[in-house]
Specification:
By secondary structure, the chain is mainly alpha-helical. It contains 13 helices and no strands.
């Protein structure tokens, strides 16, 4: 329950090594930018849904109504609260509409909720139950991103953003929960469960490698190191204020399962997600601000991530 600092470093280090490898592969033109769209479609449509099926079907932690309700609810609230706090910090930094206020708030509110925390949870807790709770938790995160997040960024929720709530991972989640509910989880044949597990295992390394490749692209952008108040403010809110709140509520909220508390601790340590860069461009935000937020928090999290995970586990458990 309370891993040592060495084990926390050991869990985080492979993630950053894979990010670095993705960076090198992009720079060496082994992974071309033109391949990103196809690889992302493969991730979202095949590998990630298989991960959901593999870790949710037959998961005892997801037989509890408490986890099925509390996990997505906390995921949703954590994102909306992040938007509000980041908005307040952005105003203190002097950002206004048209100069990055909404983009700063949006990008800092959304942490990397999938590809980085999944391998860290697997390494630290070796718990199928905790990973299953994380995947259910992430449904609330996505719901907040595509509703409150798009409202913040674009000023409205359109039909396109609502359609994105129904995506292959969410469909896989519903199928997996239905299998559990009907008792079919104990009758999954090996010829079906094994290829699902194999495909699901591909999602994390490929997702992290693509993340590293995208970081390489970001570092080539002109002017990304301008306006130092944006990266510094991002580190302060995303890797300072918000982790304190995450750990506090993980320790004090009553009735939460140990698995959900573990998920909250890991999410507390996460940098900003990369997807908001794309969304900020699509919904009229400021992509340069998004790039600064993501780069600053990702690079700084190399130091802060192990510290927050260690602090969180020590305080909560």
């Amino acid at each position: 329950m309370n891993p040592s600092f060495t084990s926390v470093i050991g869990a985080a280090l492979p993630v950053f090594l894979l990010l670095g490898l993705g960076y090198v592969l992009r720079k060496g033109k082994v992974v071309a930018e033109t391949a990103d769209t196809s690889l992302l479609k493969l991730l979202v449509s095949v590998f990630y849904p298989c991960l959901y099926l593999d870790y949710i079907i037959g998961n005892p932690a997801l037989m509890s109504v408490g986890n099925l309700v509390s996990a997505p609810l906390i995921g949703f609230v954590s994102i909306v609260a992040g938007f509000a706090i980041a908005y307040g910090v952005a105003r203190l930094l002097g950002l206004q509409r048209g100069t990055g206020l909404r983009t700063f708030s949006f990008c800092n509110g959304i942490y990397n909720y999938g590809y980085i925390p999944i391998p860290i949870i697997m390494a630290l807790f070796a718990s199928r139950e905790t990973l299953g709770v994380l995947l259910v938790y992430n449904v609330g995160v996505e719901a907040a991103m595509w509703t409150a997040g798009i409202m913040l960024l674009a000023g409205k929720i359109d039909r396109e953003s609502l359609k994105r709530l129904v995506n292959p991972p969410v469909v896989a989640l519903l199928v997996a929960l239905l299998v559990n509910l009907t008792g079919l989880d104990g009758h999954m044949p090996g010829w079906l469960s094994r290829p699902i597990s194999m495909l699901g295992a591909c999602s994390i390394p490929l997702g992290i490698l693509l993340g590293g490749a995208m970081v390489a692209d970001l570092l080539t952008r002109k002017g990304i190191f301008d306006m130092p108040k944006i990266p510094l403010g991002s580190i302060g809110v995303r890797l300072g204020i918000l982790p304190i709140l995450f750990v506090f509520f993980a320790a004090t909220l009553p009735g939460l399962s140990p698995e959900l508390r573990q998920v909250m601790i890991i999410q507390a340590a996460m940098p900003a997600g990369i997807l908001p860069i794309v969304l900020s461009r699509h919904y009229g935000g400021e992509p340069k601000v998004a790039i600064r937020v993501v780069l600053a928090t990702t690079l700084a999290s190399i130091i802060t991530m192990p510290l927050w995970i260690r602090i969180g586990t020590a305080v909560v458990f």
